[in-house]
Amino acid sequence: xxxxxxxxxxxxxxxxxxxxxxxxxxxxxxxxxxxxxxxxxxxxxxxxxxxxxxxxxxxxxxxxxxxxxxxxxxxxxxxxxxxxxxxxxxxxxxxxxxxxxxxxxxxxxxxxxxxxxxxxxxxxxxxxxxxxxxxxxxxxxxxxxxxxxxxxxxxxxxxxxxxxxxxxxxxxxxxxxxxx
Length: 180
Known about the structure:
The protein is an alpha+beta fold. It has four helices and six strands.
């Protein structure tokens, strides 16, 4: 039997987010840590220790490049940089990561630029959320990225060409064989 809902004022006030949502244009760098799921811990060791240690190192490296850790869930990390020269700065972070050999074998890497909406989640004090089509684009590229190769969204190529002295190479995605 249906019961009437309580009057709106008796349901309780909505909890405001701890941080207002903001829309920002960011350069995003994603890392898909594919090999960590197959890693076997040392006898008696914590199976999450290698993951935790790598996260700590990657987070410190990102901070030295003024990058924010936007998402850190399971095997995927997403870093973002806003402001002037954001694409060049996110590429410098990627370069530092590769130069330091911090990316485990088989890692997927991708870079995009676009808008994201991020802020505190209403009703969940202390929790943040980040959404946007640019994140979905980044996730698609991560899935397609050949092992230990970087897939770039088309808008990133022009910024990378002066750094390389040539246009970035075109590679095939591992799932769709689409050319990137």
